[in-house]
Amino acid sequence: MSSWSSWLSDRSSEIASSHKVQLGLTAAISTGIGVAAVLGLQNSRRWYNVHDLKGSIPELTSPHDIERINDFGGAAPEEDHDRRDDERSAALARRARLGDYDEALILEQLARNRVFLKDEGLAKLRGAFVVVVGCGGVGSHATAALARSGCGRLRLIDFDQVTLSSLNRHAVAALADVGTPKVLCLQKRLEQITPWIHFDCRNQLFGEGMADEQLAPWSDGQQPTYVIDAIDNIDSKVALLHYCHRKGLPVISSMGAGCKSDPTRVFVGDISASAEDPLSRTTRRKLRTLGVKDGIPVVYSSEKTGPGKAQLLPLPEDEFAKGRVGELGVLPDFRVRILPVLGTMPAVFGLCVANHVMLKITGYPHDYVPSKARDKMYDGILAQVQGLEERVAKHCGYDPVGLRIPVNVDDVGYLIEEVWHGRSAVSGLTSRLALTRWRKPVNDWIDGRTPGQKADRLQLDELVCMTKDEMLKHETQVLKGDRTPEDVYDKSVIELVARRWETERIFREQR
């Protein structure tokens, strides 16, 4: 034991007398103290940060600043910062439109379009004047795409304001824009992206009586290069399309994006080719009465409705009980029912519209979805109706020579496509279609008062679509036989025919 103590005492004496060992111990102790201090400081900071975060969370009973939301449900700025930013953006846009903006910057921003469309195509787009009528979900996305791509002049026409429900599908609107006109919202937001674009905003409802003014040339006389129809009101849509067709203005129309969910079934094609879309069907029907049956490109969806899919929401019964439902609309003859809309689909439609317009303006090669090209089929059906009427006339004791029917090719196309939706009323088949009288004609159904002419008093709402085989059977059993349609067909067929005729009568009264 004494030897161990002696050895330890000797070693202690050596360490105490060694200067290097003393420095090493001092350094080790200092390092340990420093590490402990850093760890302690980090723990302290972490504790204070957590404490401050918890302290920033208000209690449930704390008063709320209700002035942060305005009367329209939009965000009210807490200070003038946002307003100053908007003013600076508007001032920059004014200078840019006057030429105070570096051309190299514009070309850099449009570089991807430039290499795609080439200099000639981009120049055409930058020199274009496009009118967008309707600045909701579809129109806003079309406008934004055209502005971002460099379209030089944009006239925006829409009477409506941004609402909270607009924000699920509008291209650029923010919460702070709620309650402001859609056209001004688009201009303000897009000027912050492409300040050199020229805007002409019209916070107006498009109307046939104002078409000459609203679709007038730009202030320097430039005619509209293209017109975009993004209206969801049928009467205004038909008026715009008919005006453009009559004046020779290039136009593309967006059909219904509501209740649609499949982007793979969205097409660009002639209006005569659009299908499975009530808005398109009604628009076609009204345009046909004005002599327009094709020649208008449209964006449409071929998606069919089905169980579990969204439908147009009906008005509650209590609203009908209150009186005339037309008074519920924002404007006369404007829709009052809520249309279910998946926010992505108006964007798909709008971008398809803008894409088509850019390709047409720049002359970029593109294929067009072909129309039904069924004029030859309509000619054949018309000849078949003529032959059927002559056979029935002969069976009833009339001389069929010189018999004239009051039906033309356009009437046949209208009946087949718009009234009977291209299907047999009996079987629902779509091939080898024909038209036939539904009931046996009554006495004096041929007018022979004009010398040398025999006029058939056949009315369009007496004709029903069937296949040729069904028509021949119908001719034998009903038109030449003793049976009535009720004796031959199921109740569902009888009701379908009555329903289609009633719809056509209502539509004819509204024309």
TrEMBL record:
GO terms for biological process: cyclic threonylcarbamoyladenosine biosynthetic process. Keywords: ATP-binding, Ligase, Membrane, Mitochondrion, Mitochondrion outer membrane, Nucleotide-binding, Transmembrane, Transmembrane helix. Residues 112-369 form the THIF-type NAD/FAD binding fold domain. The keyword Repeat does not apply. It is a multi-pass membrane protein. It is found in: Mitochondrion outer membrane. Belongs to the HesA/MoeB/ThiF family. This is THIF-type NAD/FAD binding fold domain-containing protein. It comes from Salinomyces thailandicus.
